[in-house]
Write a structure and sequence with these properties.
- This protein is α+β, with helices and mostly antiparallel strands.
- Among the domains are: about 1-200, Immunoglobulin-like (Sandwich), CATH 2.60.40.1260; about 215-270 and about 305-335, Sandwich (Immunoglobulin-like); about 520-750.
- Helices cover about 25% and strands about 20% of the residues.
- The protein contains 18 helices and 35 strands.
- The strands form nine sheets. It has a seven-stranded mixed β-sheet with strand order 8-7-2-1-11-13-12, with no helix packed on it. The chain has a seven-stranded mixed barrel with strand order 23-24-25-26-29-31-30. The protein has a five-stranded mixed β-sheet with strand order 15-22-21-18-19, with no helix packed on it.
- Helix 10 packs antiparallel against helix 11 (about 565-575) and helix 16 crosses helix 17.
- It starts with a helix and ends with a helix.
């Protein structure tokens, strides 16, 4: 007995004073967007609380996670918890180097050349106080086997806790006994032994139950599935769960026990002539609040087309819930021209998260008005702070997506995440949207492998609904560029586009293009590469990969700085760059007159980090085409666009390559290819004519929806004619550009 007392006394005095009141107070095993660390990442976490009156050191204590993997765990470095302090421990196996290293700040010629100055990397300590004190633990926290134990140096358990499987962005938190006693019977099902499912509360006690409770009941059953109906009908709902009621909404909001209780069938009818709600708002865009003549955007002056969105949930007597079922009903659409021949998408998300002042991702919102208050003036432009300019996980919203084919069969109903996409175009009332399939919502991939004419192969993880970007009125330029390059088999990546018609929270949102999204998954599907072996650079920054991967891109730029006119340097350049694709990429973008925001921006390239099994895992850089809509194929401004001169002046890699005679010849050969086949008037018309016929009715409805009488189909048809004129004149303009650059324009001036 004396020996046991002695052992406990030693444990208490040597790192891990269990008697001093260390406890695990919170477990978050599915942290998607609730709590970020100082670097903006979202690892899972636990919270440790010193409820005692004395400081406690965790130095030498061991943390283990998971009953099934009861291995060695991880030893805490020196970490002292003050009395009553809460300390966050972020957990991820990605934390490899936990020691702060004094970085070498000596002058580096390579860094000076590439960045204009010698720089010293700095570690950010910005953030809340609890973030600065956080401990980073290189272990993964499983949401299926969420057991955590902390033991002292002698291996004696100091504290332990186990959490049930959680919904994303919730915590299993220890709560005050007085608070636990205040919960109602309906809430008791998620409270046990003074623990509850709560909103994450790092650095402080838990204080509120989460409204995201793990679903345990079966979903409500609808008498009719979402889809297209010629006549109205009565919709019946039922539940197979005993002692459960059904609650529903018709405005896109997530139903709860405060919503309408289902007591009788719901009348479904054509509601297109009812009052506009979301489309009537002017706070969705700075270009509506502070109109610019060059855009001509207008709030609709007519009732837009609508569908009836029914969302329903089953809620049990003790607070148990089901998943929400969402169905969209289109009544009387047989004679409506806007959607003829096109797939239709219905995207439904709680209006508070889309159009709300505080958290609405689609509005100018709180972000804008706080910014205007700071400046002391009520005005905005396209780049002004606004909710829709916010990015990252915290600005992703859960949504329900239904896709109906052109034949009006429902091909998809899936819970997903949605974010705003783009830069300048975020300030437009019609915005591009990124769509994400994630396990936290249900399926980790989109549950289809084809859409319209697009065969995606294996189902993708993410897609984009593209509004046209700066080409908002015609929405043609990016699609034409992609299809021309793809049809010719040019050696760079393109995204595939398919036209569709979108309804957002039940209201007409117009013509969009469902589009592939560049990601690790895109590269895996198209090139068979290991997603963990991919580096993607976008606009001089690491888009995919690790921070250290930037050095691979800087090696490329430094080689160009050394001079590619040197045969040995050019040979090495060809070893690390797909030279055919490099020439294709620059010849194509220059030939279509892409200028202004390229190549200084809107460029991306990728490679494998190391050699792999796929032929494309050869450590060579390859380019990706995107965002050519700002200034391309523009007859008015750029019939003779000197995109070649612009690229030579602004792109150090291309400029260096063009000093090599071998690459010059290859580049001019590629320009001849563009003029003779890829971008010829005949090739263009074979793409643009069927495309415009397919989308013309949808385009007309969309122009009316967003511009009223300010922009008409006459304008649209004029733009189509001017694109054709651009390609008819472009060979001559390209020859002029070569002559200005001191190159031989002869191949472009001859016949071919």
């Amino acid at each position: 007995m004396l020996l046991i007392i002695f052992i406990y006394a030693v444990a208490a005095s040597q790192g891990g004073a269990g008697a001093s009141g260390i406890e695990i107070s919170e477990i978050c095993s599915r942290n998607f967007s609730a709590v970020s660390d100082n670097k903006g990442h979202y690892p899972d976490f636990i919270e440790i609380h010193n409820k005692g009156d004395d400081p406690v050191s965790l130095k030498g204590c061991r943390i283990r996670v998971g009953k099934s993997g009861y291995g060695g765990g991880w030893i805490f470095p020196d970490a002292v918890l003050q009395p009553r302090e809460y300390r966050i421990c972020f957990l991820s196996k990605d934390f490899k180097d936990l020691e702060r290293i004094d970085l070498d700040d000596s002058f580096n010629i390579r860094d000076y050349v590439l960045n204009g100055a010698a720089r010293k990397q700095q570690i950010s300590n910005e953030g809340d106080g609890w973030k600065e004190r956080a401990v980073y633990v290189p272990l993964n926290l499983s949401y299926e086997d969420t057991f955590v134990e902390i033991s002292g140096r002698m291996g004696i358990r100091l504290c332990a806790a186990e959490a049930p499987e959680l919904v994303y962005d919730t915590s299993y938190s220890r709560i005050e006994s007085t608070l636990a006693a205040s919960y109602s019977m309906e809430e008791a099902s998620i409270v046990s032994n003074e623990w509850a499912v709560c909103e994450p509360s790092p650095g402080k006690p838990a204080c509120a139950l989460s409204d995201r409770i793990q679903p345990t009941l079966k979903q409500p059953i609808f008498s009719r599935e979402g889809g297209f109906y010629e006549d109205g009908f009565l919709l019946e709902l039922r539940t197979e769960s005993e002692d459960a009621d059904i609650f529903y909404t018709l405005d896109g909001s997530v139903p709860n026990k405060e919503s309408r209780k289902y007591v009788e069938p719901i009348r479904i009818r054509d509601i297109s002539e009812t009052r506009n709600i979301w489309s009537a708002r002017s706070d969705v865009a700075s270009t509506l609040l502070f109109p610019r003549k060059k855009y001509g955007f207008a709030v609709p002056d007519h009732p837009v087309d609508k569908c009836t969105v029914v969302r329903a949930v089953a809620i049990g007597r003790n607070g148990e819930v089901s998943q929400v079922t969402t169905n969209s009903y289109f009544v009387g659409y047989a004679e409506k021209d806007s959607i003829k021949g096109l797939p239709v998408l219905s995207l439904v998300s709680d209006p508070k998260g889309i159009f709300g002042y505080e958290r609405g991702i689609y509005t100018v919102g709180k972000t804008a008005f706080q910014n205007m208050a700071r400046k002391g003036r009520y005005s905005m432009n396209e780049w002004s702070d606004a909710n829709y300019h916010n990015r990252g996980r915290e600005w992703e919203r859960p949504a329900s997506l239904e896709i109906f084919s052109a034949e009006r069969e429902r091909t998809l109903r899936q819970e997903i995440g949605v974010r705003i996409k783009g830069n300048w175009s975020r300030s437009f009332p019609q915005k591009s949207l990124n769509l994400y399939a994630r396990n936290i919502y249900g399926e980790g991939r989109f549950a289809f492998n084809s859409f319209g004419e697009i065969a995606f192969g294996e189902s993708p993880e993410s897609l984009t609904l593209f509004c046209g970007g700066n080409d908002i009125k015609t929405k043609l330029v990016d699609i034409l560029a992609s299809r021309m390059a793809s049809r010719a088999g040019l050696n760079f990546s393109v995204m595939r586009f398919e036209p569709c018609y979108l309804f957002l929270d039940g209201e007409e949102w117009g013509l969009y293009y469902l589009t592939e999204k560049y990601s690790e998954d895109y590269l895996r599907l198209h090139f068979g590469v290991d997603p963990q072996n991919v580096v993607m650079i976008k606009n001089h920054e690491v888009e995919i990969g690790e921070g250290g991967d930037l050095s691979l891109y800087e090696d490329l730029r430094y080689l160009a700085y050394l001079g590619l006119q040197d045969p040995e340097n050019y040979k090495k350049f060809c070893e690390i760059v797909d030279i055919e694709g490099f020439a294709d990429y620059y010849a194509f973008r220059i030939y279509i007159g892409n200028i202004n925001d390229w190549p200084s921006r809107n460029f991306a390239l990728w490679r494998s980090r190391k050699q792999g099994e796929s032929p494309y895992e050869d450590c060579r850089w390859r380019y990706l085409l995107f965002d050519v809509n700002n200034a391309s194929m523009d007859t008015k401004r750029f019939p003779d666009a000197d995109a070649l001169l612009d690229a030579l002046e602004t792109d150090d890699i291309f400029r260096s390559a063009m000093k090599n005679k071998d690459f010059q010849r290859l580049f001019i050969e590629k320009l001849v290819l563009m003029a003779g086949s890829v971008c010829s008037s005949e090739a263009l018309e074979e793409i643009i004519d069927p495309l415009t016929r397919q989308v013309e009715l949808a385009e007309e409805a969309t122009l009316r929806r967003y511009f009223g009488s300010n922009v008409t189909m006459e304008y649209y048809r004029l733009q189509v004619d001017e694109i054709k004129e651009f390609f008819a004149l472009r060979r001559e303009g390209m020859a002029l550009s070569l002559r200005k650059a001191g190159l031989n324009p002869g191949p472009l001036e001859g016949s071919y």
